[in-house]
Structure prediction request, 432 residues.
Amino acid sequence: MYEIKIEKFQGPLDLLLQLIEQEELDITEVSLAQVTDQYLEYLKQVEELNPEEVADFLVVAAKLLLIKSRLLLPTLDLGGEEEASELERQLRLYQRFIAAGRAIDKLWRAGHVAWVRPKPLILKREEPEGPPPNLSVDGLRQALGRVIAALEPIIKLPQVTLLKVISITEKIQALKAMILKKAHLNWQSLIKGAKDKTEIIVSFLALLELVKQRQLIAEQSALFQDINLTRLEN
Amino acid sequence: MSTPTPITEALRGKFESILFAAGKPLALKKLADMLGVTVGDVEAAARELNERYREAGHGLEVILHQGEALMVTRPEYSDLVRQFLKVEELGELTRPQLEALSVLAYRGPLSKPELEQVRGVNCSLILRNLMIRGLVEVVGEDGPVPHYQVTVDFIRYLGLSATSELPEYDTLSRDENLGQAIVGIVSEPAPTEPVAKG
Prediction:
């Protein structure tokens, strides 16, 4: 008995075809009879077949046994000639579609997909498309006139001068500039020109920021004493 | 190519514009009714349009499949359009899927028993899978036996404009013996089974 090397098969016809192709036989009644034993042997080895599959396999097994019996006992009239040639024909047909399936697989893998628009362009609308019927050049001019008329009171609002607030960023710039000029500076002289408390606070925050940025060093000998500011090289 | 009635420039143009606006498979019957011509005329218009597209190197083509027409991009420019649309690659097909698809592509529409006659195994599950993937559809659901065929999408995934462009289509689809083999079993009463809804 040959050793059977069969890939995973997809049903009785697939198994049968693989057996015949392995023996390098053509699909004939004789070759079907020849692989009958191997077919049955293989079914014994297979453990996992669900009930539906078992039925499919047994139908083919019965046909194979009939073919084999007829060839072994040609004198005996067993009938079933049609069934025998039918299996042969069925297997041939199956073989051709297997080949066709390979060709389709090739096309599929090539990935030359013809594309369609992802969504149909038709959008269901209640309103008809196109400009509204009351749209006219004159109408547009009048509408713009109304917009301009509505703008007038807004433009004529009383003008109020806003107080300029000194920001920390501005103060930092000023501090930097002064220190760059002098290299040494103390806190008292820095706030001498301050107009109000806010400016002093902002100056102090700016000072802290520059210390944090390591742009200058602040030194104070004792509590409430003047602060000496020195520019850091680099 | 000789056609029974010459296709006028206008008919071809009308057909083309509707197909473009539709962006999905359109029944030839519906098109014929709209245009006041026969289905054969519409089919001829589609073929002529395809010829012209091909000759002039256009980026479009028309798929004709089981009485439906769809305008698609040329398969040659598939990668470019894929990039533009940002679509993922298609997953692989399993062997049983390929078997069932090839039988249906060459011989469809077929009933389930007819398909099973060729494959030699029960095909309920595989048909359901293929329908979920949009590669197979049911036709004649109202009839006594539902039939299955490959979809227009399947054809455009392969980059074909009709199943007749499949390799060896003539021999595999028309062979008398093959026809008999399939028909052989169909004379038996088909099992009445509920159709799996796609």
Summary: The domain at 9-85 of chain B is CATH 1.10.10.10 (Arc Repressor Mutant, subunit A).
